[in-house]
Amino acid sequence: MMTVTEKVAYLKGLVEGLDFDKDDKETKVINAVLDVLEDLALTVSDLDDEMALVTEQLDAVDEDLADLEEIFYDECDDCDCDCDDCDCDCDEDMYEVECPNCGEMIYFDEEIILDGQAECPACGETLEFETECECDCCEDEE
Predict the structure, then answer these.
(1) CA atoms within 13 A on the CB side of 95
(2) Three-state DSSP class for 8?
(3) What confidence tens digit (pLDDT) does each residue in 70-93 have?
(4) CA dihedral 95, 99, 103, 106 (to 10 degrees)
(5) Taking phi first (over 0 means left), then psi (-120 to 50 degrees means alpha), and beta for anything else, what does residue 49 get?
């Protein structure tokens, strides 16, 4: 199948093969129309290339988003609840923290809280956490 640019080039070849008088008004109109068609064909070709690139990038973003959704949303596939009303342990070690800078509610797991600090994903503010361990081994250190 021919592309639009190839079809316009074919038409130009057909018109040139007819040996029209170049000074004739009709020939000038036909040549002008062919020039416009050639410009349009090149524009369409460029748009096709751009669209292919955008589609490729969108597919990559879609795959990345699917990976993120699997990480963040598929942790509780065993039930269809908000994890407050079931016996699953999907949010057992999750902590809700409000960023003092932007007010965004953020969820951190116990490991991040025990590290003592984390960055707010919404505004980039560094959040610091103070924790007190209640186990017997830590009480001996005090």
Answers:
(1) 13
(2) helix
(3) 888 755 544 444 554 444 555 456
(4) -30
(5) alpha
Find where tokens 């017997």 sit: 136
Residue 80: what pLDDT? Answer: 46
DSSP state of 52: H
- Contacts of 2-5 with C-beta under 8 Å, sequence gap 24+, read 3/41, 3/45, 4/40, 4/41, 4/44, 4/45, 5/38, 5/41, 5/42, 5/44, 5/45
Q: Is 127 helix (H, G, I), strand (E, B) or coil?
A: strand
Q: Are 126 and 117 in contact (CB under 8 A)?
A: yes
Residue tagged 């003092």 (tokens):
100
Report d(CA 134, CA 21) in Å as an integer: 99
The beta strands (E) that lie in 1-142 are given as 94-98, 105-109, 117-119, 126-128
Q: For residue 75, what pLDDT is reported? A: 53
Each residue's pLDDT tens digit, 89-115: 554 568 888 899 999 998 888 888 888
